[in-house]
Amino acid sequence: MSAARATDLEPASSPVPAVRVAPMRRRHLRAVTRIEAQVYPRPWSVGLFLSELALRDQRTYLVARVGGAVVGYAGTLYVLEDAHVTTVAVDPAWHRLGIGTRLLAGVMRTAVARGSTAVTLEVRVSNVGAQALYRAFGFAPAGVRKGYYADTGEDALVMWAHDVHDLAHVARVTALAAGVPGTTVWERS
């Protein structure tokens, strides 16, 4: 018997399920690359994810699971006191159910736990939905990288969240994570 795929769980027809957020492992990569291929024109390869996972002291990668199915993932790299969100992706069948909010809260919490004081990311200038999510987490536009996305030549909006270790920001992230419908189970490595 094969494992359930995220799209087999029919999220739209059921109440918001329990979501488990856990460190990404090699066993998750088949599902991660399937989502990657659905949401990005130039998806990362299994090899690239493996090389990222090998850098545990410099990277954090999380998956969101419902039942046994991976429905989203996010990653962060660390440079001194800064964290850089490298990826956030959610299976399209699971959009608008708080999966991205849970994942972003997870990487923000981990960044703070690892001593980060600021977090940055790039987002397509056309992706206003993601920008709204990032603004809710305290990110603000800081500049534009012209032609950043090689697949289309689209510009990237650079966003930063500063003082993420301050109690007010930690409370903001906690409130956002607590505000999503359903249950979130946070698993540690």
Estimate the helix proportion, in percent: 25-40%
The DSSP helix count reads 5
Could you tell me the strand content as a percent range? 25-35%
The CA-CA distance between the termini, in Å, is 27 Å
Q: Main beta sheet, described?
A: 8 strands, mixed
Shape: globular
Characterise the protein shown here.
This protein has an 8-stranded mixed β-sheet with strand order 6-7-5-4-3-2-1-8. The relative contact order is 0.17. It has 5 helices and 8 strands; from the N terminus they run βααβββαβαββαβ. Helix 3 runs antiparallel to helix 5. The chain is α+β, with helices and mostly antiparallel strands. The protein has helices at 29-39, 46-53, 99-113, 128-136, 167-178, and strands at residues 19-23, 59-66, 69-79, 82-90, 118-124, 140-149, 154-162, 184-186. The longest helix is centred in the middle third of the chain and has 15 residues, at 99-113.
Question: What topology emerges from the helices and strands here?
Answer:
Blueprint (H helix, E strand, L loop, with lengths): L18 E5 L5 H11 L6 H8 L5 E8 L2 E11 L2 E9 L8 H15 L4 E7 L3 H9 L3 E10 L4 E9 L4 H12 L5 E3 L3
Parallel strand pairs: 1-8, 4-5
Antiparallel strand pairs: 1-2, 2-3, 3-4, 5-7, 6-7
Helix pairs in contact: 3-5
Put the structure in a nutshell.
29% of the residues lie in helices and 33% in strands.
Notable characteristics:
189 residues, alpha+beta, 8-stranded mixed beta sheet, 5 helices, 29% helix, 33% strand, disordered N terminus
